[in-house]
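Entry type: protein chain
Record version: 2
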Amino acid sequence: MNDIKNKWDERYAQKEYVYGKEPNEFFKQELAKHKPGKILLPAEGEGRNAVYAAKLGWEVYAFDSSSEAIKKAQQLASENNVEIHYTLSSFEEADYPDDFFDLIGLFYAHTLSRADNHKKLIRFLKPKGTIILEGFSKEQIHYNSGGPSKIEMLFSEEELQSDFADLTELITEKMEIQLNEGKQHNGKASVIRLIGLK
């Protein structure tokens, strides 16, 4: 855990926002379909999605294992005159009430304990709440536009369908997109998008 934390602290310690300040495009597109409520953004990094949601009137909760990321997220929130509830936490440590969130947004949140972490998040979602996810597919191993170098940390549609099997109206789609999210997510990429309801 500390090695991972140190890696991310090192990445986020630089002045530049390594994934940019703009929200993820898929998140932006899907969020427009929901009326504001409580949202959770795990592994939220420098806060681009959290700040965007807060500007739209969402009550935003987020966590990340990097204290450097949180500093930058709070700075971005301050620049935009919004407030986010951001805690220093790993997936394993994250704890919220059951049936609490209207929406959970997972963007490039790749962990080795993928299945357990995904199942845990469903508990925090209200009945009829939505999960929106975008992450790198296993094909991303052949691209150099970002993402983990370990194939077991990348997603397959089958894995995600299994993780979120308790959700209804589950839609997954693998696609090739052009990423333009700061210097760390840049270029042609293979991603999977998922939407599901509790």
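Comment: Residues 2-197 form a domain with the Rossmann fold fold (CATH 3.40.50.150).
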